[in-house]
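Can't paste images in this forum, so I'm doing it all in text. The chain is below; anyone willing to post the predicted C-alpha cells underneath?
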Amino acid sequence: MTRRILPIDPRTYVRHPIHGDGRVWSETNCYSDLWIELLHALGRDPVAALPFTIAIDFEGDQWTFFKFPLATLSDLYGLEVQELAIWRSLAEHLEEQVIRGRLSLVEVDSFSLPDTAGTAYRSAHVKTTVAVNEIDIEGRYLGYFHNAHYHELRGEDFDDVLRVRGPRESSELPPYVEFVKIGPPGPTGEALLGRSRDWLRRELGLVPVTNPFVAFQERLARDLEAVLGHDLDVFHAYSFATLRQFGACYELAATYLQWLHRQGEPGVKELAKPFQDLAEGAKAFQFQLARAVARRKTLDLTPLHRMAEWWQHGITGLRTRYL
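Text version of the structure:
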C-alpha cells in the first residue's frame, strides 16, 4: 500500500519560478532548493523567508552554506522541524511519519538516486538530502523531493537508498533525518510582509562587519595555484563551495528584494540590482576560473574588486533603509 501526504505526480509537478527558466543559477544547494519546493508544494510562498540570504559570509575555506532557518519556517509557515531518532529500519520510520502526515528530510547517497543520472547516479558517492512524501515498502517505491523537482524511484534504488538489504552493521552510522510537523498556514498579506520585514532587520544585524569579498580575494590568491594544478573535479568542488554558494545566494537575495517591491515596499527596487550583479558576476567568474584550470593559466582577480563594491552598495542601502 502506498502511503502519501501530498497528491503529487512527478510527471505533472510544476516547480516554483525560482527554479524556472531565465535564472542565472538554476539550482542553489540541495537543502535550500529542497525547502523552496517543499514550501511551494505546501502552498506557502518561500520567497518571504529569504532574508537569511543577506547575511552570508566568507568562512575561510568556503562561503556560508546557506539554509532556511528553522525559526523562520516556524514563524512564517507554521512548520516545526525536529530530528528523527533512528532505532529501527529507516523505511519503517519513514512510513510511520508519512502516515502521521509528516514529511521526512533524509540524508542519502546520490549514487542511488536516478534523478542524478549524468552526474552521480551509479557513478559517484555524494551526500544529499531528499524529502519523502510517499512510500510503499512492499512495492519498493518512494516519491520524494530532491533539488529543484519531485521524483520517484523503485526496486533496487529503493533498497539502496533506504538500506533495506540485510541487517545493519553495528559500525554503520544511521542517516541524519528530520521530520516536518505541518501546522496551520502562517500569516498572509500584510501580516506576512511585516514578519518577513522583521526577519530582514534581524539578518541585517548579522551581516559581516568587514566586506567578505576582500577576505575572499586574499584567500583565492593563495588557493589559486593549488586549484590550477589539479583537474576539473577539484575546480567543481572548489567552485561549489565558493562561487556557486555566494552567487546563487545573492540571486535569491535579489529575488527577495524584488518581491518586497511587488508588495509595495518603497525604496527597495534599486537595491536588488547589486545583488543580481553579484549573482551574474559569480557565474562569469566561474567560467573564467574553469578556463584557467583547463589551460593551466593564471587568472585575473580584478572582477572581485567590483563584487566587493556591489556588496558594499547593496548592504549599505539596506542598512540605511531598514536599520
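The mean pLDDT is 95. The first helix runs from residue 30 to 41.
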